[in-house]
Amino acid sequence: MRVEQVDWVEIPAGRLLRGTPAEEVDEVARRYAGTGVPVEWYRKEAPRTELYIPAFRIARTQVTVGQWTRFAQATGRPVPQASADHPVIGVTWKDAAEYCRWLGRQLGGLGVRLPTEDEWERAARGDDDREFPWGDKYRTGLANLVDLGVGTTTPVGSFPEGASPYGVLDMAGNADEWTATLYAPYRGAPAEVPSSEDWAFDPHISRGGAFRHDRDLARCARRHGAYERDLAAIGMGFRVAAPSG
């Protein structure tokens, strides 16, 4: 069975200015007050921490329906009824992780996996403190979010001007993306940040937001999750990562 090769983007080792400074959280909440997101959700991003992230590689685009279909046919899963070049959505974390293992076997034992939350943020924002993958200013038309008015997914890579510093596409919008990281407060987080999110359908962090989400989820620092059981309705998808090659 043919397996499409992954368009890998090499992310060099370097620093990540992860998260949001605690003293800036209230201002961030005010800036996005129109989205209806409470300030408590932004406090999960604090504090700002400088980390060193080893080199890795990440797929330029989200896993597509066409790519997922080959996995589904090989493993007896249902085949999505959607355009092959759109991101696959409605995928559980467990199935996304199994896809990674399956793809790794097809690629000769490559250690394909979901990116960690820190790797995802590094790929999205590079080594500076930009707010969005493309820079510091939000602009409609650089990502498939609710303000675009499409109401569903678009072909992956449809917004090249919204690329991250390394050329990774759709890191904001189109499909929300699973990471390998279980939710927990950052070290040194404000005391009111919950130690767990028992209301979430799945305990893993997701990043980037989907077509139904507002511009706050386009922010590189924004931590999210699967808070509804209907993973297709909320646009839950993923992209793959691997060791640096």
Per-chain topology:
Layout lengths: L7 E4 L2 E5 L6 H7 L7 H5 L5 E5 L2 E4 L5 H11 L17 H14 L10 H9 L50 E7 L21 E4 L28 E2 L3 E3 L2
Parallel strand pairs: 5-7
Antiparallel strand pairs: 1-4, 2-3, 4-8, 5-6
What keywords describe this structure?
5 helices; alpha+beta; 3-stranded mixed β-sheet; 14% strand; 8 strands; 3-stranded antiparallel β-sheet; globular
Structure commentary:
The chain has 245 residues and is of the alpha+beta class. The protein has one domain (8-243): paralog of FGE (formylglycine-generating enzyme). The protein has helices spanning 25-31, 39-43, 65-75, 93-106, 117-125, and strands at 8-11, 14-18, 49-53, 56-59, 176-182, 204-207, 236-237, 241-243. It is globular, with a radius of gyration of 17 Å. The protein starts with 7 loop residues before the first strand and ends with a strand.
Q: Look up the CATH topology.
A: paralog of FGE (formylglycine-generating enzyme)
Note the run of SSEs as H and E: EEHHEEHHHEEEE
Strand content: 5-15%
At CATH's second level, what is the architecture? Answer: Alpha-Beta Complex
By secondary-structure content and strand pairing, the structural class works out as alpha+beta
